[in-house]
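Journal club side-thread
Mid-discussion, someone asked how the predicted structure for our own chain would compare to the paper's figures. Pasting it here so we can look after the session.
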Amino acid sequence: MSGHVPRRLHFPQLALRRRLGQLSCMSRPALKLRSWPLTVLYYLLPFGALRPLSRVGWRPVSRVALYKSVPTRLLSRAWGRLNQVELPHWLRRPVYSLYIWTFGVNMKEAAVEDLHHYRNLSEFFRRKLKPQARPVCCLHSVISPSDGKILNFGQVKNSEVEQVKGVTYSLESFLGPRTSVEDLPFPPAASCSSFRNQLVTQEGNELYHCVIYLAPGDYHCFHSPTDWTVSHRRHFPGSLMSVNPGMARWIKELFCHNERVVLTGDWKHGFFSLTAVGATNVGSIRIYFDRDLHTNSPRYSKGSYNDFSFVTHANKEGIPMRKGEHLGEFNLGSTIVLIFEAPKDFNFKLKAGQKIRFGEALGSL
């Protein structure tokens, strides 16, 4: 009788070991698929309920890998369609009031304060402001293109840019590889020089960057940060992961994984670029003068990119933009990244983590 008890006690562990042995013989994709349900339970169940599995060789998929596997593009397209559903007149005030209370929206700045005016959530997200709500600073050469929070700013060093303090990403991965000089407005440079040096067109200039995070309650349109000419657009389909500061600290090169629209051109000091980075539930990134741009579309696959030049035989300069002019809009909160060259005496008028509004000064010479 006593001889049977140890077998009964050890049988579940032996069976689990045999099962894990079978899993180890599977192909890697199949192993991941089988282990993800266990991984979800591993992180959700309290008191480390599944921790004993590690003793027999099982390891959970990392939280980052698990999050990256979520079909954020599909979910964001579904959210975008839901946002376009017209709400009954009686339901608009309670729905929008809940959103206003949750995210601290200041409706006194809106061009139309009456909540019944907005037929759906999409119209509410893209609400316009009263003209006097955001005066454009005339004293400084670069202004904030949007409302938001300053995540990072400063000089670009070693072709690496900080998305948040201590977490960097590759400048070339973010803007995309340089192709021919005819296709992109990047200056010619020796193949051995860094990608940063390829962007700097004038001797003595430095390359600068500024990252602005738009929260869900912020004004969702963005404007031209300076007087410049847009000559090229590059669209990266990518993922649509959350870009809030906590996630930006968690996932390295988050901005390089996400869908984004890179506008490049020139201002009076050389190279200038503005990148609109998509995020979860951002159904679209819209550039007002670019009718050929279609973001979060199933026809584009992640890992690819497509280019479009605004320089034509009829228009050899590109698209001129004045400081403060309407440039585009998000369907929900996201991030804007400015990368530009300027003389060494360019100074940012910022502090990391500060709130900023469209039209306020970013920096000047």
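Post-session note: The chain has two domains: 59-126, 142-176+198-364.
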